[in-house]
Design brief:
- The protein has 13 helices and 18 strands.
- β9, α8 and β10 form a beta-alpha-beta unit.
- It is an alpha/beta fold.
Length: 436
């Protein structure tokens, strides 16, 4: 808020907060100097003083909250290998609203009364000291939709993990997103009332020690949410018979499964927008024949494929993705049929890629350029990840007469390869968070 003060010399914009105090102080000061000071002169002096106030101190609360939310999203990355033991606002970022409350009294009041800043909580390796903090965090979130991340890496922390989980389960009707990684069986997770997670949109579970029946029960409860659209699975497909396929928009699947089995299920995912598949080798990958017709995914914009070895052809020969904008391919080999299948896939889909990430152990630069010389590849604007066998200077390939329209892409590839050769730290990419 602000106040307009008008004089014969103009209008002065002053912040409303503390105006009376500042005005009285200014007038007292001026009166001691000279009685000839006019109101106009007093307002000029007062306006000059207010210009010394930091801009952030006079911003509206709504703008400050927006700034605080951006601050929480810009923390340093959490590496699980470092065995973190702190509470954060994100599973991947070291950030918390708590330090902001130490800046000043006004910020502390604003932050403690802003539920959105407390609506996401991540606990790595729960400790006893975390329990009161989790309780405080949840209280300050009030009735906001919650994002809950609990990752237990040590079995000896069972009691602490169970206590924190129970505190969160009391708010399960507010859950918007959950990510649980448990080394032990926590029965409280299986005892959640069916249908109580009615606001849940995203779910990721890694619960290897739970029984098959418990896993089925938990996932059936998750799938009962009318808003569920984003799932991360690491179990055989028979656990997901209850999945609302037509509602799913994001699927991340990590498991050794027959690829043809998964392709048959994709026929029901008409609204899918993001698909990440990390599938290890499966001895029975030919257990089912590929679908007889093409599978069109009309809304798919992002596709990440990893760990398929010789089964890329099966995917490229089966799906059609007219809206695809981002593609990541990891560990594909140099066999010609893969290149042919990919080319037919791009022709059939008629998509225009904007981002292309590529990794292969045995494809050299000239072969890689054949991948780039495909329909729909000239629109690429970024290459977040490039890892090919050859370390040759990609600048030399710019002069290849067949690749003149992708000079900017080659330049990006050359920069990445130079970073590898000089030992520079590889920048984070979509693939680095997906493939360990």
């Amino acid at each position: 808020m602000s106040l307009n003060v008008c004089t014969h010399k103009g209008t002065y914009l002053l912040p409303e907060d503390g105006i009376l105090c500042m005005l009285c102080s200014a007038l007292r000061h001026l009166a001691t100097i000279s009685p000839k000071y006019t109101l106009s002169m007093a307002m000029e002096k007062l306006s000059t003083w207010t210009n010394r106030i930091p801009t952030i101190s006079v911003l509206p609360d709504e703008i400050l909250i927006e700034i605080f939310q951006h601050y929480l999203a810009l923390g340093s990355r959490i590496y699980l290998a470092d065995k973190p033991t702190r509470i954060s606002s994100s599973a991947m970022i070291r950030s918390s609203p708590v330090p902001l409350t130490h800046v000043c009294h006004n910020w502390r009041q604003l932050i403690n009364s802003s539920p959105l800043l407390w609506a996401s909580i991540a606990v790595h390796n729960p400790r006893r000291k975390h329990i009161p903090l989790v309780r405080l965090w949840l209280d300050r979130a009030r009735s906001c939709p919650l994002s809950i991340h609990i990752h237990q890496n040590y079995s000896e922390r069972y009691i602490e993990t169970e206590t924190i989980l129970e505190l969160c389960i009391d708010r399960c009707h507010q859950w918007k997103s959950i990510s649980f990684r448990f080394r032990d069986v926590h029965q409280s997770l299986t005892n959640i009332s069916f249908g109580s997670m009615k606001n849940l949109d995203h779910a990721s579970l890694h619960i290897p020690k739970f029984s098959k029946d418990d896993k089925d029960k938990i996932w059936a409860n998750i799938h009962s949410s009318p808003r569920i659209s984003n799932v991360e699975w690491s179990l055989p497909l028979f656990h997901f018979r209850t999945a609302p396929w037509e509602h799913l928009k994001v699927i991340e699947y990590r498991y050794q499964v027959p690829i043809n089995e998964f392709l048959h299920i994709l026929k029901s995912c008409r609204n899918l927008e993001t698909l990440h598949l990390l599938m290890g080798a499966s001895k029975d990958h030919d257990a089912l024949s590929p679908p007889a017709e093409f599978i069109t995914l009309p809304s798919l914009k992002e596709l990440c494929l990893a760990g398929f070895n010789d089964r890329y052809c099966t995917i490229f020969d089966t799906i059609t993705t007219p809206q695809l904008a981002s593609l990541t391919i990891h560990l594909i080999d140099s066999r010609p049929e893969n290149l042919i299948s990919f080319k037919q896939f791009m022709i059939r889909s008629r998509c225009k890629l904007q981002s292309f990430a590529f990794a292969s152990n045995n494809i050299e630069a000239p072969e890689f350029l054949q991948w780039l010389d495909m329909p729909g590849m000239s629109s690429i604007t970024e290459m977040p990840y490039l890892d090919i066998r050859s370390k040759m200077d990609m600048h030399n390939l710019i002069h290849d007469p067949h690749q003149t329209y992708i000079e900017s892409v080659i330049a990006r590839g050359n920069e990445f390869i130079l970073q590898q050769e000089t030992g520079a730290t590889r920048s984070d990419s979509n693939l680095s968070g997906f493939v360990s």
